[in-house]
Amino acid sequence: MRFLIAGAGPAGTLLACYLAGRGHQVAVYERRQDPRGLNEAEGRSINLGLSARGVRALGGIGLMDRIWPLTVPMRGRVVHVPGGPTTFHPYGTRDDEILYSVLRRDLVALLIDHAAAQPGVSFHFGHRVVELDREAPAVQVVEEATGESARVTADVVVGADGAFSAVRTQLHRGVRADHHQEFLDWGYKELTIPAADDGSARVRLEALHVWPGGDGLIVAHPNRDNSLTATLFLPYEGPGGFAEITDPEAFFAERFPDALPFMPDLAKEYADNPVAHLVSIRTSPWHDAGRVVLIGDACHAVYPFYGQGMNSSLEDCLVLDQCLGAHPGDPERAFAEFQRARRPHTDVLDELSRQNFVELRERLRSPLHHARRQADLLLARMFPGRWLPLYTMISHTTMPYADALAKARRQDALLRWAAVTAAGATALVAMRKLVRKGH
Ligand code: FAD
Prior knowledge:
The protein contains twelve helices and 19 strands. It is an alpha/beta fold. α8 runs antiparallel to α9 (331-361). The longest helix is centred in the C-terminal third of the chain and has 36 residues, at 401-436. It is globular, with a radius of gyration of 24 Å. The model has no long low-confidence stretch (mean pLDDT 92). Flavin-adenine dinucleotide is lined by residues 6-12, 29-32, 48-49, 128-129, 160-162, 166, 188, 231, 296-298, 304, 307-311, 313.
């Protein structure tokens, strides 16, 4: 079949590899330039945390051996609290429970190389998909440089064009579609912790660094050149919000004093880099009549606080490939099966990503949260493979998201029951003592 993919992000490029592996013809249209031809400055790239689900999906096309060298392992979180000790929290109980930081550009460039090397695959950069004809199916593409427009037909159009998907908008036109889109009242800005003058890392490299700050948060992922890409999350409005910051260095000195020394280029970067939005999207349907299907952020964008947006998008490609394999020659059934298999889980991911926002922002500073997490890790060590903290299940296993949440809720109920029973037993012993003393 002839597939046309709109968007060469992580999802579109990995799907191109899977489809080519099944012998389909694939044409990918991407509005941006080819990331392989850009120099460092033009191709500024965010880095993303790759975890078990992404690793499994990328492993499905046999590419992990080439991806590992592009990554920096993150063995846990380093939490920086102003005036307090800097603490390291391992991600899991086992040595292999780690995340990997990878530049989006590096990952996507490798996937493009891999897909483009296969017969029947073509990439068209600098081409924006602007219209979808659901029935044909066909799309209208505009070449960004010249403004020239062309109609391209295919057997299947895939919308892998991200959270603000043009394919999704037109797929849903005139249809009883559900669409929940929510912008967080926080935005984010990218900053850098460059390597020190001698080329070494300014902070422990193999970790994710977090500066929780009540109404504000910095998260930093490591890069292979010993720098870290830091993301500053803040409310748009109100005291300490982006709208009120006139002197970023003074703001950092007050709110993130222990991050400030690591950011010598703060003032310039703060002025140069835009504030970007955070959006969450739950939507349905994801497909139409075996002719159009959505994957990745186009059908389930989440807030980035669980580090699972890309991982779940890569996982989509694996599941869609399995559905196509289970229903050869019947894309309509394959796409219906794909949505049925994925949507309950990506809805749960949306919920978890919201919860983790609160956790990163507030609970990381709380001793109670720390104690709860220690209890979870202790139980995981006492009952290996049977007691799994929720974070472990989401980030270090490929257990479907909804199953992981259900198991975590059962574990929580057990822990509460044990706490109540222990408290009850203690009270009983105390009462017996009082009764014996003749009270
Ligand atoms: P996108 O990455 O959005 O790619 C869509 C592509 O389509 C783009 O290349 C775009 O240029 C192109 N496009 C858009 N419209 C058109 C059009 N009309 N025509 C042609 N092309 C078009 N996820 C993680 O797993 N781990 C993390 O650590 C992590 N950190 C994050 C941090 C931040 C601050 C943010 C905002 C997100 C983070 N994510 C993370 C989420 C992750 O970036 C996304 O979930 C992931 O990129 C989705 O991949 P995608 O291919 O579906 O969409």
